[in-house]
User: Which sequence fits this backbone?
């Protein structure tokens, strides 16, 4: 993979600390990961792998499968729809309240249809056109913001209460 990777591990509790069973489901600390990805389709599986790794390294209460899916959609959109050949940066933050994923790309143009209602249904015969719909439907919130080098597109997922989590 091209690019520089920065992986920030969470601060671990002190060695004598014994979390109660209620604390095992929800992290007591925040953790974040950053990864520079190539502006190619190879970025999509690498992004999914980072999310999978982050969620397995820190026992986290957000839905990992949904986080992987939505991350793949954001990265695929950045590769397919943005101008520029600079790297794409993936930022994954696991927080006690849920997770936030951002994809930074070099194109300052906002993603069409991410935060405004879509008036047309996606064409069932077309391969694409559902990524932003999935992000809007499955995330707790989503959006975009300008950055000094382009934009960041993001989504958040809440922590899932323990009784509702799949085994």
Assistant:
């Amino acid at each position: 993979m091209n690019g520089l990777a920065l992986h920030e591990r969470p601060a671990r509790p002190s060695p004598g600390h014994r979390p109660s069973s209620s604390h095992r489901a929800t992290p007591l600390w925040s953790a974040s990961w950053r990864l520079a990805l190539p502006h190619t389709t190879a970025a999509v599986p690498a992004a999914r792998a980072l999310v999978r790794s982050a969620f397995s390294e820190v026992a986290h209460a957000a839905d990992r499968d949904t986080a992987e899916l939505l991350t793949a959609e954001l990265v695929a959109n950045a590769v397919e729809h943005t101008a520029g050949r600079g790297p794409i940066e993936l930022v994954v933050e696991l927080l006690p309240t849920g997770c936030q994923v951002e994809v930074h790309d070099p194109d300052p143009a906002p993603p069409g249809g991410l935060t405004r209602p879509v008036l047309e249904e996606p064409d069932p015969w077309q391969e694409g056109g559902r990524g932003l719909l999935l992000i809007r439907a499955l995330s707790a919130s989503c959006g975009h913001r300008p950055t000094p080098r382009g934009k960041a597109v993001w989504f958040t997922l809440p922590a899932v209460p323990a009784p509702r989590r799949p085994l």
